[in-house]
Amino acid sequence: MFTALTAILVFGLLVFFHELGHFSIAKMVGIKVHEFAIGMGPRLLKYTKGETDYSVRMLPIGGYVKMEGEDENSDDLRSFSNKTVGERIAVIFAGPFMNFILAMILFAIIFYNVAGTPTTTIEEVIENSPAESVGIQKNDEIISINNAAVNDWEQLVQKINDSEGVTLKIGLVRGNEKIEKIVAPQIEEETNRYMIGIVPHTEKSFTLAMRGSYLQTKMIFTEMFGFFRGLLTRQTTDAEVVGPVGIISLVGQASRDGLYNVLYLAGLISINLGIINLLPIPALDGSRILFLVFEFFRGKPVDPEKEAMVHMVGLALLMLLMIIITYKDILTIFSG
C-alpha cells in the first residue's frame, strides 16, 4: 500500500510539472484553456476558475491540458491554431522543459540537505596516495591544474581523470600563500579512473546546491540521451527498458531506503520523461514540434484533423508497446 501511494505521488508530481509547463505558457500567450487535468478517466475532483476547469481524475497515469483549437479547427482568435508557430512550439516544449526543471529542484534538495556540495577545498588526504606523497594537506584549496583555473569539484575530477596518469601541476592556496605541487595521478582499480587521493570538503549552500543540481541533471541527461541513441543503433538492449510496473517496483525499493532515494529516483524519471517526450514519435510533444517546424518551412499548417489522426495512431502504438513492456516487467518481478 505504501509503495502504491508513493508511486502515485511520484507520478502525480511528474505529470503536474509537465502539464504546468504547457498550461503556463498557453496562458501567457493568450490561448483559451478549457481544462487542466491530472490523471485520466472519470473525474474525482473538479474546480472551475474563470474559463478553465481544474480536475483530478481516477487513473494516475498521465494528464493533459485541453486547449481551444489544438486538435480541431477553430475560428476563435484565442485558439491554439491561431497563435504563431513560435508561440505554439513554446507551449509544447514547455512540458518536457519543466520535467528538467523539476529534476534540478529535486537534486538541489538532496544536495543541500544530504550530501552538501563538494568544493575544491580538501577535507582529507588519503594515506599513501599521490597527493600525500607530494605534501598536499587538509584545508588546501585547489585553484588550478596545469595553469588552467579550476572552479568546482566536478571539473577538478574530470581534469585529473583526463590526465591518464600524466604528471600534473596543481596550484593550491594554503592559508594566505599560493603554492604549486607536481602530482602523478594513479588509476583506481575499482572505478578505473585516475585519482590523486583527496576527499573534498562539502558545504551547504543554496547556490552550490543549484550548481551541483545543474551539473547532475546535465550528466544524467547526457547518459540517457546516449542510452536512447544506443536503442536506435541496437547498442542497448530492451532488457534495460522498464514500464510503469517496473518503475513502481523501483519506487518501492527506493521508498524503503528513505525519502531522498525516492526524490533522486523521481529526478531520474523526470529527466527520462522529458527526453522521451521530445522524441519525434507521433502523440508525443516532439512529434507536435516536428509538425510545427514543417508548417514553418511549408508556409501553411497541416490539417488539424489529419495531424490528430497521426497522433491517435501513434498513441495506439505507444499503448501497445506499454502493454508489452508491462508484461515483461511483471515476468521480471515474479521471476526475481
TrEMBL record:
Record-level GO cellular component terms: membrane
Organism: Natronincola peptidivorans
The name this protein goes by in its record: Zinc metalloprotease
Keywords associated with the record: Hydrolase, Membrane, Metal-binding, Metalloprotease, Protease, Transmembrane, Transmembrane helix, Zinc
Family, as annotated: Belongs to the peptidase M50B family.
Gene3D superfamilies named in the record: 2.30.42.10
Superkingdom of origin organism: Bacteria
Membrane topology value: Multi-pass membrane protein
Keyword Membrane: yes
An annotated GO BP: proteolysis
Broad class of enzyme this protein falls into: hydrolase
PDZ domain sequence ranges: 108-176
Transmembrane parts of this sequence: 89-112, 262-284, 308-327
Pfam families: PDZ_6, Peptidase_M50
Alphabetical list of PANTHER family matching this protein: MEMBRANE METALLOPROTEASE ARASP2, CHLOROPLASTIC-RELATED, REGULATOR OF SIGMA-E PROTEASE RSEP
